[in-house]
Every structure is written in C-alpha cells, then in structure tokens.
Amino acid sequence: MTELPETLANPSLEALRAVHDASSDLVRETPTMTSRSLSRDVGGEIVLKAENLQRTGSFKIRGALAKLRSIDVEGCAGVVTGSAGNHAQSLAYAARSLGIPCRVYMPQAAAIGKVEAVRAFGGEVVRGGEGVDSCVNLARDVALEEGMEFVHPFDDADVIAGQSGVGVELAGQVPDLRKVVVPVGGGGLASGIAIALKLHDPDVEVIGVQAEGCAAAVESMDVHHPVEIEQASTIADGIAVKRPGNLTLPLLERWLDGIVTVDDEAIVGAMVRLAERTKLVTEGAGAVGVAALLTGAVEPASTGATVAVLSGGNVDPRLLAAAINRHEITESRRVRISTRVPDSPGGLADLLQAIALAGANILEVSHVRDLADLDLSQTSVDLTLETRGPDHTAELRAGLAAAGYEVGEG
Amino acid sequence: MTELPETLANPSLEALRAVHDASSDLVRETPTMTSRSLSRDVGGEIVLKAENLQRTGSFKIRGALAKLRSIDVEGCAGVVTGSAGNHAQSLAYAARSLGIPCRVYMPQAAAIGKVEAVRAFGGEVVRGGEGVDSCVNLARDVALEEGMEFVHPFDDADVIAGQSGVGVELAGQVPDLRKVVVPVGGGGLASGIAIALKLHDPDVEVIGVQAEGCAAAVESMDVHHPVEIEQASTIADGIAVKRPGNLTLPLLERWLDGIVTVDDEAIVGAMVRLAERTKLVTEGAGAVGVAALLTGAVEPASTGATVAVLSGGNVDPRLLAAAINRHEITESRRVRISTRVPDSPGGLADLLQAIALAGANILEVSHVRDLADLDLSQTSVDLTLETRGPDHTAELRAGLAAAGYEVGEG
At B89, which helix (H) or strand (E)? Predict the structure, then answer.
C-alpha cells in the first residue's frame, strides 16, 4: 500500500478550502440547479452541480491549477503530461495563465478537436503513443530527462486537493445536502469531493459511478489493490481509466460509501435527457451520475438533497448528435416501418392519412418499387415516423394492421 | 397608434422590480457567464445571460406568471392561449403552480415533444388550426365565449412587465454593463429588457436581433406600423412571428437602439458553438444574439460588457443533431471525397496512409465497384473525412493530388 502524504492521510477542511479559495481567480464557482422533472421521475430532491460549465469544460482545471500553484515556478522548465482530453486542456490553460510552458503527449488517435483545444490554450502537443497510458509514461520519462514537472491526471495529492473544490462549493451551495453521486475514472474527483464533504458533514453519503465498460476502480476495490483491466469500451471516455491510482484507490476505499456501474445505453439516455430537459451539454463521463439515478443503480436520499455532479461537457458535437439519434431509436420515438400500398392514385395518401390519425409524425417516406417479390399492383413504402414512445408505437402498428396494412420493420 | 397603458407609457424601475421579486418563488435568477473564447473572437467582453436554463426552458415563464398574478383568480374559469411552443409550456406551468385551469390551442403540425410538454405541465391541449395565428385567434374567441382569461404571448402590458425581469437581473448581475443583444419575435422580451435597463442606466445600449427569414419587426419599424409578412422561414421558430404587437411595436421604436437580422446559417453556427464551447443548449431564437456578434451584425461595446441574452433552449434534440451535422459540413470539417484506387492488395491501404499523413481522420469508407465508366483495374472509393477546417481540407486535396489520386466530390 502506498503511503499517503500527510495532507491526504489527515486532511483538513480548512486546508482544502484554502486551496479552493486560492484558485478563485481562474476557477468558476459552477452553479447548482434543482431539476423538478428529474426529482419527480427519480423520487427524490435532485440537484445538478453543473461542473460542465467550468472553464475548459470540466473540473480538471481545479486539480491542474492546484498542482501548478504548489510547484516552484522559478526553477521549473515547464510542465508535461500525457492525456487524450480534459486533463490536457486544463493543464495547458492553467499553465498559460501562470506563464509556465506546457507540453502534452497525446495519443495518435486523439480527436482533432481535443488536440486543437490544447493548442488554442498555448500547449505544445506531441502526438505519439498508442494510448493514454503510454503517453503518461512517456511524459513521466521526459520530465525526468528535461527537468520538467510531471503532472499526473489524478494520482497526485495536490491534484486531488484541487478537485475537492467541487465538494467545498457544494457544502456551501446546497442546504440539507444528504447524498452526492460522482463519476469515477482515476478517482481524483470522487476522492477529493468525498474528503471535503465528509469533513464538512460525515453523514453526507458519497457514491461513485463507473462505466460498465471500464470499471477498474470497482474491480480494484473488490480486491483492495489496483487492478489493470485490459479493454476499455465505453462512450464515457473521460472516465475510461484502466487502472485507478496508488493514492486514489485507498482514498476511494476509505471515503466512498459505495460504487456502482451504468451501461452505455443509460449514459446516452442521460446525456440526451440533460440536453433536452436541462439544456446542458454533458460528455458521457459527466452524465453517469444522472444515469445511475435514472436506472435506479443509486437511490436518491429519502429526505434532503441528492446531488449529481456533471463533471464535464467536452463531447465532440458529432458524438452528441449520434447519441441523440441513437437514443430516439432506443426510446422507440423514432420508428422505421415498411409496408405496401396499392400502386394507384390515392394509395399512399390513404396510408399517410391512417398514420396521421394515429397521431404519429412522418419524418421520411421512400417508395421502393423494384423488389422482385412484390405484387405488381402494389408498391413498397419505407417510412420513418416519430411517435410519443413505445406504447404509442405499438398502438400505431395495431391501428395500421386493423386498417389492412401488413407492417414490417423498415 | 394603440394607446399604451400607464405602466408602459410611464414605466418605473421600482414597479418592474416589484413584478420581478413577486415571481421569485417560481422563476429562477438565471446565471450569467463570461465567455473568453467568444470575447476573443468578437473583440469585446462578452457575457451570456443563460435564460435557456430558466424553468420551462425559456424566459416565457416570466411573462406568463406576471400575467396570472395580475388577474382575479377567484373569478376566473381558467386561462387560454394559442401557441406552438414556449408560451404554451410556460402558461401551463404557471397556471398549474397557481391552481388555475389552462387550455392551449396548438397547431395541428406542432411538434409532439411540445404538445407532450404542455400536457406534462397539466395543460389541456386542443389541436387544430393551421398555424399559430389562427390558434391565437381561436383562443381569443373561446375566452370571450367561456369567460376564460386570454393570455397573449407578447402583446400584453403585464406579460411585457414580466419579461423585463431579465433586464432587472442583468442590472444587478453585470458590472459595467454597456450593451445588450436581445432576440426579437413579437417584441415582448426585447421591449421589457430595454425598458428595465434604460431606466437603470440610459447609456446601456439595447440592440434587437431578428431572423432574416421572418423580420416583421424590422419591416414594421421602418414604416412605423405593424406589418404582417406572408411567409416565415427560419430555424428560429421561437421568434418566427409574422406581425409584431400593437403594444410592442411602439415600445421597440421608443426603447431599442437598433435592430439587425441574421440568417439561418449564422444561427446554426451559433447554436453549435454554444453547445460545443459553452456547453449550453439553445434553440435557434436563443442563439441569434451570439450569431449577430459572430457575424459582425452587432459590434460589441468597445469598453465594458456586452451581454447576449440566450432566451431559450427548447429545441427538438433531433433538430440539434441535424444542426450539428449541417454545421460540420458548412465548416468543411466534415468532407466527402471520392477517388479511385488500384483494385489490388494494398491499394486502399496506400490511400488511407496518405490521408493519415495529411492529418485527417477517416470517418467512413465505402467501395463502389460497379460504376460502368471505371477502368476494371480500379475501384472507386467514397470517403467521409474529418479535417481541421477549410485550409486543412484544401491541403489534404493538394496532398492527395500530388500523390497521384484524382479527387472528386463524394
């Protein structure tokens, strides 16, 4: 077991508050929002901590800045890290703000948008390495060789103290706070928040959430040492960490009240719901807390407020668009059907009329005439429809069948 | 010219403040956010007023509630209006909160999601009428017949006083406020904000923005009486109002410092940018202020803060997804090309290698073998690529041409 530095072995709320307050020039106190529709659906008082509205789009700026404030800037040739996303952007942003050079090793396959964002914040990007892990190792080696300061994305006492700022803020923002649901990747955010809140009030419960497709912290907590999983497969790339940290694992074990997992379908559903109802863009990692509440993996507190931390919003817009389209189909609000109509005037019009009567909207119609098995007097029609959900879809199919249409999948 | 009621002819900031404060139990004080990237790109200090985070997803709740608070609830059989969207939801929400029955006439073609939202807030929905205008007229008639209170979406002194709450809040939230950019549909929000802010400080400039495809207020202000335009065609359905109000038009003329238009491409660009960079979902109407700043239609104040009011976020998620995809293509970040490779082992691999060297990501590849005009030794390939933008795309095309590939549009 790694020995914890004193600040983490015997943390004090005053010290964490001081770290938080020292960064108030660059870090936003992000708003909290009650959500009546989520509260109703989940059966508790749900509050969202909109950390996706943080500068650089995620909580990572808190830890990066706390770390940079802890090092000797004069004697430092610059900072270096390996990352595919949020940590890279945040470190570049924080370093530029303090006038420190910053280099980031990013995987060859890193999204162009994320590479550009790091460059826009003045960071030097070196592409190379298969994945994040090899980039982190490369950065650690380079730091030693070139006298730069290596900044680990999560396994660092100063970084963890920085992330605890989310908890420090929640303690002041949410009266009657009873439970907090936090995404867990490497574990820096979750342990930071848990420490701050438990010091504030030991009765506040803190529950971690991982993506089912990359639940290394869950596995590691089972066996009480860091386990490295082989394959990460989840839409929540921000928490797709294959091995929790040597510092963070014992902290998670000590401070969390529980940890659960959610699958990608639940994560996509939460992302779309947050965009549709709450008008907030979240990345997959940022939506896992809401996913856990909506699926029942986490029960809200029976009295008092339950907070879901929306940890970040850095999602490629294209991925968000794909998530919306996928969700519409999953929810059976967008339905493709195929049927046949008489190949004579009014044939299609009658079908469309029957669909309109059933209350569905028609999004797309295409005629398919040249299928060999069709009666020559009929023409095949593919339709994409919008319904109110699975029940309405079933009703629609029954209505069309009753009207004499043979309905297949489109 | 319609005579203005006394509250609008001689408005007082104290009275507007009182309206605002009376609704603080149901209306959120929405956050303001500085945006460094917008500020940099636009060349001024840009602040966003996130009214899309308002309850019911738009500012409309402010006016609806102010109106309901002004009527005699005891003697009222209920409230009724005609609307396709935000006003309907807001009135239903406000009416339920005060225990008043609410009926909304919605166009036959209204989006299912909006109909469902009104019902979810306890409103009775009657579908019928071709467009919003006929629904509004229907509601006005029904109100007379059935002794219900008709609530106009914008042309009502109490509604306008309610919308002024956005201005009341801005006066307190933004130090050194110099300019405010506000969407204009019917004109209720813009005139309300302008009145509150000019009473607060006559030097604050207030500029209205309309969608080019439905600029009835612009035309009407030119000729100093309400003009009805025939066709509304814009993605910004929330401000697609074909005729400004009898009350609002003189108010816009008196209180606005200017009014401009933006086209749908600019609106889509602003929506996507707000989602990508600021993590806020806006509807088209909510994004026109940012569109006006990004296109230069409105110059930011040279010193002090310029606020863009994000008036609402009620966009069909599918429309948001479509906007993202359209914007990617407009920005030439998503490019479709078509070329040919030798139909032999390694032919495609060489092409993909050349593309990777040019730094583009490959999103989709499809082989098209059966085109008649192809040399039999070659196979046609369609590719969808992600680039960093137009310059990078041009570079990529030049690189492929230099490597011997004949590149066409995909």
Answer: helix B86-98
**B335 bridge partner residues:** B385
Query: Would you call B281 and A282 a contact, using CB atoms and an 8 Å cutoff?
Result: no
Q: Taking chain B, what is the end-to-end CA distance rounded to the nearest angstrom?
A: 57
Report, as residue numbers or ranges, the catalytic residues of B: 60, 311
Q: What is the pLDDT of residues B44-70, one digit of tens each?
A: 999 999 999 999 999 999 999 999 999
Token pair for A122: 């003045």
Spatial contact of A161 and A7, defined as CB atoms under 8 Å apart: yes
In this structure, chain A runs to a length of 410
Tell me, what DSSP letter sits at residue B5?
P
| B156 Cβ contact list (under 8 Å, min separation 6) | B63, B67, B188, B247
> Cβ A52–B279 below 8 Å, yes or no?
yes
Q: How far apart are CA A32 and CA A176, in angstroms?
A: 14
Spell out the SS3 assignment of chain A.
CCCCCHHHHCCCHHHHHHHHHHCCCCCCCCCEEECHHHHHHHCCEEEEECHHHCHHHECHHHHHHHHHHHCCCCCCCCEEEECCCHHHHHHHHHHHHHCCCEEEEECCCCCHHHHHHHHHCCCEEEECCCCHHHHHHHHHHHHHHHCCEECCCCCCHHHHHHHCHHHHHHHHHCCCEEEEEEECCCCHHHHHHHHHHHHHCCCCEEEEEEEHHHCHHHHHHHHCCCCCCCCCCCCCHHHCCCCCCCCHHHHHHHHCCEEEEECHHHHHHHHHHHHHHHCECCCHHHHHHHHHHHHCCCCCCCCCEEEEECCECCCCHHHHHHHHHHHHHHCCCEEEEEEEEECCCCHHHHHHHHHHHCCCEEEEEEEECCCCCCCCCEEEEEEEEECCCHHHHHHHHHHHHHCCCCCEEC
- Residue in A28, A281, A317 closest to B280 by CB: A281
pLDDT digits over A312-328, tens only? 999 989 899 999 988 88
Q: Between residues B293 and B395, which one has the greater pLDDT?
A: B293
Q: Which residues contact A192 (CB under 8 A, 6 or more apart)?
A: A16, A63, A160, A161, A162, A163, A164, A165, A166, A167
For every residue of B192-243, DSSP letters joined together read HHHHHHHHH-TTSEEEEEEEGGG-HHHHHHHHTS----S----S-GGG--SS
Q: Which has the closest alpha carbon to B110: A209, A388, A410, A219?
A: A388
Interatomic CA distance for residues A153 and A73, integer angstroms = 19
**Residues listed for chain B:** 410
Contact B337, B409 (CB under 8 A): yes
The set of residues, in sequence order, having a beta carbon less than 8 Å from that of A282 and lying 6+ positions away, is A52, A270, A271, A274, A275, A290, A310, A312, A313, A315, B279
**β-strands B79-82, B149-150 pairing:** parallel
Q: What percent of chain B has pLDDT over 70?
A: 95
Pairing of the two strands B378-386 and A378-386? unpaired
Contacts of B118 in chain A (CB under 8 A): none
| Options A35, A58, A164, A311, the catalytic residue | A311
- With an 8 Å Cβ cutoff, are A361 and B112 in contact? yes
Predicted TM-score (pTM) of the model is 0.84
| Cross-strand bridge partners of residue B261 | B210
> CB-side exposure of B178: number of CA atoms within 13 Å?
12
DSSP string, B258-310: EEEEE-HHHHHHHHHHIIIII-B---HHHHHHHHHHHHTSSPPPSSSEEEEE-
CA A106, CA A86: separation in Å to the nearest integer?
11
Contact residues on chain B for A322, CB-CB shorter than 8 A: 321
B232 to chain A, minimum CA–CA distance in Å?
Answer: 21
Residues of chain A where predicted confidence (pLDDT) is lower than 70: 1-3, 367-377, 409-410
